[in-house]
Amino acid sequence: MNLKTSFPIFVIALLLSCSDAPKTPTQQLPKQEISQLPQQEVYQKAPSDIKYHWTTDFDDKTSLINQIPVPQNYKRVKPKSGSFQQWLQFLPLFPKGTKVKTYEGSLKSNQSAHKRVVNIDIGKRDLQQCADAVMRLRSEYLFGKKEYKKIHFNYTNGTQVSFDDWRNGKQPKVQGNKVTFPNSGKKDNSYLNFKKYLIQIFSYAGTASLEKEMKSIPMEEMKIGDVFIQGGHPGHAILVVDMAENKEGKKLYLLAQSYMPAQNIHILKNPMSSDLSPWYELKSDKNIDTPEWNFNTSDLKRF
Question: Is 0.85 topped by the overall pTM?
Answer without folding.
Answer: yes
